Amino acid sequence: MSTKKTAIPTDFQITAPIHQTAYLVDGELREWKGATSEVYSTISSTSEYQPTLLGSIPDMAEAEAMEALDAALKAYDKGKGVWPTMHVKDRIESMEKFVKQMETKREEIVKLLMWEIGKSLPDSQKEFDRTVEYIYDTIEEYKQLDRNSAKFQKHDGVYAHVKRGPLGVVLCLGPYNYPLNETFALLIPAIIMGNTAIFKPAKHGVLLITPLLEAFQNSFPKGVINILFGRGRAVAAPIMQTGKVDVLALIGNSKSANALQNQHPKSNRLRLVLGLEAKNPAIVLPDADMKLTVDEVVAGTTSFNGQRCTALKVVYVQNGAKDVFLQKFAMAIDGLKFGNPWDEGVKLTPLPEPGKPDYIQELIDDALAKGAEIVNKKGGQRFDNYIWPAILYPVTKDMRVYQEEQFGPVIPVLSFEDIEEPLDDMAESNYGQQVSLFGKDVYTLSPLIDTLVNLVCRVNLNSSCQRGPDVYPFTGRKDSAQATLSVHDALRSFSIRTFVAFKDNELNNETIQQLLEAKLSNFVSTDYIL
Ligand code: G3H
């Protein structure tokens, strides 16, 4: 079956492929003359289906990885560099310069988000706007953090001026499902806290970074941010093997995170800021408001085709609610609109990974062979670049769709009699990010909430799982995360408390007084940043 082709609006047509040859190292946009990889979209531009060539990107290797690492190390300069010692207000100015230029690139980036990863127009716009807002919120939060520490405290005759300082060189790797937002949710706090960084875009959503290279180049001192292209294995692994990286910041899966951290020879030097995979369950109790529940579970399982770490990836329904839930849920899923990202009202869009429909098909076939059925009529229908979300029931623990993080359009459903069943499964699971709990009776909900908060890190009551608003802590237990990200927490995750202390005596008090008056130190400062 092939997709019904819709005309591509003029603004979104690909007129000429982007052949990206520049990469940013040591403040220079260097010209790449080596091998390149072509970038294709799984969206077709012609009525006969064929992937669209979007352009090409450099295929870099160890030599360039080492150039970038050296530049980041030089910019940090053992903590003596211009950037790590800069006054907070000057670092903020650089960030403001960057974000202002970034705002002018909205159209270009939104268009590439749609083509590269198949995200719908409203969601692509939201990803861009949310990222810009995240940067402004980070700036405000950093000012507040700095204001709160613009003071001295005294205990047992010892004064202390405590602030947060950078950790060093950060290797930053983002995911393909939020190639802009989640990457920047790592990169921006990392840089603003005074670290220097090497950043490699994800496997999809690479070209959309290129409109920002110049802004990165002209906003920050040389070597503070270095941007490479290529495969993680070729670029990130050699950087880790040197043992010179202080922070691995990665949003992706735990296998890549483990593989990379294991390459680092000095495990105590390496800090980890990781947002990893999850298998967030929805638990539907018999007294749940069915309309609201179905709406939220549809959004939770299908937004961006289930390619979100926070997506609902398994649904537990208590027996009393099972029939009505499955019937309404199946109708709602089959009522969604599939189309290209710019199509009006579209909810399901092409999958950016060419092999994904086949992988989802394997999960479906395995479940069917082990006794599940497809509940919805359209479930499993194949398109050139898509497979319709199949609701599978009854799912059992021996099925791959129960065990694996599907990260795509397929929805396993299990029914239960005793609430201990989903709780036991969650306790056994390797993941522990979030849960959605649907029900009304407070006597049932209270003990459940009290348990669930200890199994995951966010209990969403009658609401689908999600990361935002970005001021809230985003983290997880077990294989789902290390460290916490939010506008506030990310600043902490990418820094460490460090301070100047001195005994209360005449010499020290006089020296500190002079230091403050001369305004020579960027660290010892009680300036209030407006
Ligand atoms: O891929 C995981 C993302 O953090 C999910 O974020 O809940 O805003 O879609 P979201």
Question: Could you describe the 3D structure shown?
Answer:
This protein is α/β, with parallel strands linked by helices. The chain is 38% helix and 21% strand. The chain is built from 17 helices and 23 strands. The strands form six sheets. The protein has a seven-stranded mixed sheet, sandwiched between helices. The chain has a six-stranded mixed sheet with strand order 10-9-8-11-12-22, with helices on both faces. Strand 8, helix 6 and strand 9 (196-200) form a beta-alpha-beta unit. Helix 6 packs across helix 16. The model has no long low-confidence stretch (mean pLDDT 97). The site of glyceraldehyde-3-phosphate has 9 residues, from loops. Residues 177-178, 182, 308-310, 466-468 line the site of glyceraldehyde-3-phosphate.
Can you give keywords for this protein?
alpha/beta, seven-stranded mixed β-sheet, six-stranded mixed β-sheet, 23 strands
Cα end-to-end separation = 60 Å
Silhouette: globular
Structural class by helix and strand composition: alpha/beta
Approximate helicity band = 25-40%
Flag low-confidence runs: none
- Number of contiguous helices: 17
Tell me the layout of helices and strands.
Blueprint: E1 18-19, E2 22-25, E3 28-31, E4 36-44, E5 51-58, H1 62-76, H2 82-85, H3 88-103, H4 106-117, H5 121-148, E6 153-155, E7 158-166, E8 169-173, H6 181-192, E9 196-200, H7 213-219, E10 225-227, H8 232-241, E11 247-251, H9 254-263, E12 271-275, E13 280-284, H10 290-302, E14 312-318, H11 319-334, H12 356-369, E15 373-374, E16 390-393, H13 400-403, E17 410-416, H14 420-428, E18 431-432, E19 434-438, H15 442-452, E20 458-461, E21 477-478, E22 481-482, H16 487-493, E23 495-503, H17 506-518
Parallel strand pairs: 1-5, 8-9, 8-11, 9-10, 11-12, 13-14, 13-19, 14-17, 16-17, 19-20
Antiparallel strand pairs: 2-3, 4-5, 6-7, 7-23, 12-22, 15-16, 18-21
The structure holds glyceraldehyde-3-phosphate.
